[in-house]
Amino acid sequence: MGRLVFLFASSLLLMVAATTVSAATVEHSFYVKNFTVTRLCNRQVITAVNDSLPGPSLRVREGDKLIIHVFNKSPYNMTIHWHGVFQLLSAWADGPEMITQCAIRPGNKYTYKFRIINQEGTLFWHAHSSFLRATLHGAIIIRPRVRHSYPFPTPYREVPIVLGEWWNANVVDVETQALALGVGPNLSNAYTINGWPGDLYPCSQNQMYKHRVKQGKTYLLRIINAAVSSHLFYKIANHNVTVVAVDARYTNPYVTDVMVISPGQTVDVLLTANQPVGSYYMTANNYASGSGTAVGVPFNPTTTRGVIIYQGASSSTTPLMPVVPAFNDTPTAHKFFTELTSLVGGRHWVPVPLNVDHKMFVTVGTALDVCPPNVSCLGRPPVGAALSASMNNVSFVSPTSLSLLQAFFFNVGGVYTTDFPANPPVQFDYTNPSINLDPPLLFAPKGTRITKVKFNSTVEMVMQNTAIIGVENHPMHLHGFDFHVLAQGFGNFNPATDTPKYNLVNPQMRNTVSVPVGGWAVIRFVANNPGVWFMHCHFDGHMTIGLSTAFIVENGPTPDTTLPPPPTDLPQC
């Protein structure tokens, strides 16, 4: 099996050269600037790409090269992350600020260059600086190569569905205020479908996404959760859909009438217009796993909706409304998250590596920080401390003078340490709320502590949710790789009883996994991509940056497994 993994990893990287045979070059210019839009009765200045919300969709084929010129005409430092793209031998283009690059400063530009290798499906791009992701995002649609077909019937049309959040405020100010108070950010005012809030919100009767269909035709919906901090249920009245891919990985067909999609995740579904001619609402509403609160912050209980309109439907017909799941419907969410499986033998399918080189058991959750200078810490409990977050009791701190990737590549000391703990420094009853009575467990020291692994090594990580401050479902995203999700469950992970539950045959593959509320998830991946790769909770905000770490993957033994030098226009700090 070890030889199989080695051959796969080597062939994956050799594809970097081979893709030039049939690949195209797709080039775009992104102009990032402020512009004014009207939503929920208000005129609001937002930061967006090319004056659009969502931003432009990138439509490519597997093997294509992308060249994206980003011109920062906004007043904010920013970067763009190509969420889910492997970035094989192009880690300099990955985009997370201070991880692989310094920010693109106002008035400056940077050109991202990378190939789409061994990936098909739906991904997305978004800002990777502060709260700007709320309005700086768009779809990445990856079709098969020419003369390659989908592993399902060819759809009549393909439709991006981008779910988002809207604030009646400058989103950078929202984060700044939260930082000043030492609490979580203010709630969003609405959810959106393709940038529109829908008619359940004030002044929004004519601000609803509409999609027209022909009866009998099948459509491929490419659904993206680009929301900042909300897991979302998604439904279409009176229609089942068939899931065929998640996070740009083909799945066995899975029929359902409801989906739950965490921030950073994508789901591709086939929708057949097989109902009587009419109109049918689609809805998205919050899955708030923490029994109504997330670390003491109430959730947004509203629902956004768009509408599916059949050709020939009367304009006077009232659309049918689905029954939306309750905000705390964990059984429905867990069923969807756990029942998906990979399409074994499908294009780009990867067998589970059976020999593990580096095992990790990592607690993930919220934490507290001693109240920093110039922060009031007078908000939600406990007064006198600031909200934070951690992995294995380490609250991650980003570098300030040099990105992690630059420090690694040029062997600059003092920027990070490679002593991230592979196990919790203190073992405790992780999901028992009584742990909040033990103050020393609540405070996580800060540090830039990461993990270094050898090229082609196999990493297994058990992520254990904790009840510190409050339980919540955490969407954990790994840059640079997809991983097998071997198992998920509730309570404290028990190796004796839970390891036998691992799916080693056809587990789903993802780049973002939701660690269940008060539970755990196990992932496994082959570190076949040299560079520095961020792993973090895909909730945005100052407090969740602590729920992060990174992996350094050393260079392989050959030139085609070695990270090249940075581009000459890489932004400097």
From TrEMBL:
Residues 1-23 form the signal peptide. NCBIfam families: laccase. PANTHER family: LACCASE-7 (PTHR11709:SF9), MULTI-COPPER OXIDASE (PTHR11709). InterPro entries: Cu-oxidase-like_N, Cu-oxidase_2nd, Cu-oxidase_C, Cu-oxidase_fam, Cu_oxidase_CS, Cu_oxidase_Cu_BS, Cupredoxin, CuRO_1_LCC. Its EC number is 1.10.3.2. GO terms for molecular function: copper ion binding; hydroquinone:oxygen oxidoreductase activity. It comes from Gossypium darwinii (Darwin's cotton). Its main location: secreted. Residues 33-145, 158-313, 419-556 form the Plastocyanin-like domain. Its cofactor is Cu cation. It catalyses: 4 hydroquinone + O2 = 4 benzosemiquinone + 2 H2O. This is Laccase. GO terms for biological process: lignin catabolic process. GO terms for cellular component: apoplast. It is found in: Secreted, Extracellular space, Apoplast. The lineage of its organism: Eukaryota, Viridiplantae, Streptophyta, Embryophyta, Tracheophyta. Belongs to the multicopper oxidase family. Keywords: Apoplast, Copper, Glycoprotein, Lignin degradation, Metal-binding, Oxidoreductase, Repeat, Secreted, Signal.
